[in-house]
Amino acid sequence: MSFIVFLLIHLGLVFTIPSPPSIIRQADKEIIFDPRINIEIPCVAKGDPPPKYTWTKDKRIYDPSAQNNRVAMKSNAGTLIITNPTAADQGWYQCNATNQYGTALSFTTRLRMAELSQFPYSSRSKVVRARRGDWVILDCTPPTGVPDPYIYWSVVGDSDRDQFGTITVSARVTQDYYGKLYILNVEDEDEKDKRPYACNAYSRRLLLLNQGELTVLEVEKVSPTNKAPVKLWTSEQNRVFLLGHEMRLKCIFGGRPTPQVLWRKIDGTLPTDGRFSTDSEGQELVIRSVKFSDAGTYECRGSNELGMALASIQVVIESEPYWIERPEDQNVGVGEDVSFVCDADGRPAPNKVDWYVNGEPIQSEFLTSNPRISINNKLLDVTNVESTDTCVFSCNVTNKHGYAWTNFYLNVLAEPPEIQEPPDNETKVVEGESVEIKCVTFGAPRPQIFWKKNHQLITGGRFTIRSDGTLFLSSSTVADSGVYECIASNKYGSATAKGMLSVKQKTVLQTKPDNQEMRVGSFVIFRCTAKADIGLTHLIDWLKDGHPISYTDSVEKFNILNSDVTRPANTSKLFIGGGRFIKDPYDQNTLKITDLQFEDGGTYTCVARTEVDEVRADATLVVQDRPNRPRIDSIMCTSGSSKNGIVPKVKIDWSSGGENNAKILNYVLQYNTSFASTEWFNVVVKGQKEVSASVENKTDDEITRLTLVRKFEYYETDRIPGTQSDLTFPLSCWANYTFRIKAVNRLGESDPSEIASTSCFTNPCRPDRHPLGVRAFGNQSNNLIITWNLMPKIDWNAPLFWYQVEYRRARKENEPFIPQYHEWTRIKVPSERNYVIIENTPTYTEYEFYVKAFNQQAGDGVSGEATEIATLYRGFSGEDKPGLIPQNFAMDKILDYRTAKFKWDPVLIEQANDPTNGMKGRLAGFLIQFYKISGNLNSQTELKTHKVEGNVSETVITNLPPFSTVRLQIAALNDRYQGEFSTPISIMTMEGVPGPVVNLRGIPFGSSGVKLEWEEPEEPNGIIIGYEILFQQISNIAEPPGFIQPPIVIKSRYELSRIVTGLLPNQKYRFTVLARTAKGASIDPNFVEVITSSAQKPSQTNFQVLSTFEDGFNLTWSTHNQINAASLFYIKYKKTDDIASPWLRTALTTDNFISLIDLERGTRYDVILVGTTGTEHNSLETDSNKETLKTAGTARTSKNVATEPWFIGMMVSILLLIIILINVCILVRERGGKYSVQEKEPFQNQMLSSESQGFDEYQKGPGDDRGIMNQQLVTGPSNMYFDEKQYHDEDDSMAEYGNGENGKFNEDGSFIGLYGRDRIQTYVVQYNQGQNNQSESANPGASKPFTSFV
């Protein structure tokens, strides 16, 4: 390409120059138009000045304005618009674009009008008759059309002939390329209820449909017979297709069952690049965008279980002319030489090239008058061009399939120099590298280029000025840095431009990636670091096999770019991706590949890149994967011959498709047959292998020799060693085999190979074996049923196959031969049945029988039994209900509360064989039936059974109902019936541990309590004596067993609820309730998990007075409908008139009532009910409204005794006694008297006892030493409980609550039940944090946690 052509690439982006016309848009070579739609024939050209357009039609000048205003030309273009087109508009059109410098011609376009002719007329329907199973062809003579019409078949409705039901093409119903319909094996449904078939022609361009002759198909209702495939129609034996077009070949085979069609290329392979597919259920081969390599011979094979038929088609690929080198437009200066090459090829090859100038053929006269222009077939030369040589040339190359046409121009110019692309402001390069400083110029004639550095002319050495003006510098150094100036000049003037060159240090790698070997599905990490010039910024990038990797979120493994271009540093955002190829934006030195695929293996290159240089380091990644699919190279079949004793067999050779970096361990060879065309079976190889070898001493004729003894074992396997590449193995007779193979390595199996193109067809022979799965039984007392597994067709070995059953009654020992019973009876059974029923047999009588396989080879007429020796089977006829009843059924001993051992009399052979009272069948075992007839409350009667296998006389039953009277009875069993039960016996089972409680539920009670409720176990297994409650705080459902808290023991079976308080708020607890009998607690208890409520101040609860008596009150309250009810309550009280005295308080309770006692009669008290969330000092409390209550009775009145005589006398006596005591003390002290330690200890114990009280604010009230004071809280290491022994005296009675007065209770005596010994108790837990050890040391006598029994 000349210098001016190079300039034009850039010049067109900057300014326009005078030029001849060029066609840039034109019509297709053929246009088929619908006369109802306007036609547009495009023609657009460029040039300076803009070209003008003219048209020719059929090589004559065509004037659009002379077409009755139907034809117009678009402004600024040569595109024709034809309105209301007619047949007269058909023809060959060509567009001419002309300006002052020349003329360019478009393609010649053929304009054709679409049309669709009619079918030949027929006045009545044609009738075609066919038998079931035969093939039939329905003729169709389609009409002509432009373009060719689409032909299809439909079934016409009875009521309206215009309603079409399109026939769906299938493997059995199809049509050829000329419209005929083929039914490959006729079925009743093809008759379509006598509705006619119609052949239809449809024009896709005109949207027009024509219907042809009607055909009625009548099906003869005869028994269909299977038929081997026969060729009905194929594509022409010799077909020509054009390069790049679509190739379609079709083969139609008749037969029953419907033949399966397979394709192969005899002299090559079918395309593997995705261009190959099949249509019409495999009958049609489709190859898209055909190539020359697709030429050859193609074979279609139709096969079914009876045989196959073949057809071959020779395909030739030809083409229209196509360009090898197309001439290009050229802009040159005066005096230059120029050449144009017009090189095209095709099949058949074009004979010559036709040349044109400005639309006219170049004749010899033109060349004679222009001696500077010469033509040598494909080459046109112009020497020493002149300005008058500007023109448009054209060349045309033709063969029988079409032509290749192109325009190109020669443009002669005269322009002063102009620098179109000056040197960059700064060009950077690393030291030692070569550099180019561009200077793109334009001018005609071509300008001369000079370069200066720092005003000094550059000449020779490491500098070279190329023909396009570029300055080339090799092996740059730091001294080469500076300002460079480009100077361009010709005879019309000159131009200059400057740029700077900067030479930098090279980039070096500090850390290089390592080679790695990984498995598919794992991940790998490569790391690479680099150092660059201080004035440059470097970027780490990665290549795979020399191509850049795209780090994206796409599911693509990686994107290979079309060219190895350098990525600029400002595109770093592209490298951040979430796909399998991950580059950390904060650590660009690392490449991570996740979920490795085999294709990821290869060479990974770390590229440290700056704007001026790059440095690379390679690392190899080996990815191991399953093997590639192997290839079957050859198949040699031996069909076999039953007459000559030749066994059918096959020898298959194969080769590996690639190990994928993991050694192939073995191969799996597979086959399928026409009997199961969709299933693949592994070829099983039989052989022997040595399992041991030893040296033994053997004595022969008194001579001892050392002998090597080897032991072998036979094996069957479907794994062929990976070192083996061929296998010979036998085949079944009368079968059509196809094969494939898979390879196996340590990572798994490969995909199967392609199905081998060679199939094996074997001849019929006798069956190899008899049926398997043979058994005999009776479903009635007077019959014998013999069944077996149906043999698959692959084992028939011939098309005609059946079974033969031979049977007779077995002779007993010393029984005479009776022909009626002991002669063989033979029954022939069809191939589709797998049983025979022999009627009127004696009950449970032994028979001998054979089940054999027979076949008959086609045309032989002689039946043959399987070559295997038949097996003699034995079986018994049907059984009847046993008459035997087991005797002396009794319990031997009880082992535990659910288990007991039972025994009965053994059944003797004579008893079992008794025809009347015997088993009337095989003694299969015994059935024991038992049920509970009495027990504890809530028990239910449930019938259970226990089965015993065989003729035994004892058994152990392990699921008896505990603590119950159980009734049992036994019956004998044969294989079909159960005998009568024996006389029932009754036993009493032991008491056991109970089952789990029922309907256990927990409800939060305030913020520190939970109310538990449950029901008695469904299986009490004894007398329930109480319950245990276990609980612990948990953090998750997987909390290990083991309870932090001791159990709460309830001693009443009737108490089915309990409130547990003193828990932490907003915490999850697991509660387990176990029922207890005298034998122990439940072994499989239920549990419930409850989250306590959040810690909130409880709602206010006010109380009511139930009754008033002389020393107290009965109070009650309700928390119903309160959102945040308190879980514990106590009463605080004091005398109304005693303002300075502290408040007194009762013990905590969870009840909704309390008896406030030991008060003074006739006295007014202030009373407050306090609701609290727990026992902790920081528990939240809410007071009720203060109520002032007065006890019953009259208050005691006090007199002024100070003036009474008796009081004055008493005081004088006391004074005298004090004086005497003082004197005595003085005497004792003087004598050294001592005091008793025992007299002091009670006082100290009393002080210690007072220090161990529960609440600091508690003050002892009247009578507390009797009642309320005894309800003190006991503090342990982590909990606080009510001590029932302190809560009640051993002499607990109603007097405890009111000195025995009935005024404390309602008349109905309800308080007696509520406050008696059996009332509900409360379990209170105290969480003392940080005070446990201190309290223990300060109060060594404090009580420990204990269990409270109710």
From TrEMBL:
One of its GO terms (cellular component) is axon. Gene3D superfamilies: Immunoglobulins (2.60.40.10). It comes from the Eukaryota. Residues 770-874, 885-992, 993-1095 form the Fibronectin type-III domain. It is a single-pass type I membrane protein. InterPro entries: FN3_dom (IPR003961), FN3_sf (IPR036116), Ig-like_dom (IPR007110), Ig-like_dom_sf (IPR036179), Ig-like_fold (IPR013783), Ig_I-set (IPR013098), Ig_sub (IPR003599), Ig_sub2 (IPR003598). The chain crosses the membrane at residues 1206-1228. Residues 1331-1350 are annotated as: Disordered. GO terms for molecular function: cell-cell adhesion mediator activity. Residues 1-16 form the signal peptide. Keywords: Cell adhesion, Cell membrane, Disulfide bond, Glycoprotein, Immunoglobulin domain, Membrane, Repeat, Signal, Transmembrane, Transmembrane helix. The keyword Lipid biosynthesis does not apply. This is Neuroglian. It comes from Brachionus calyciflorus.
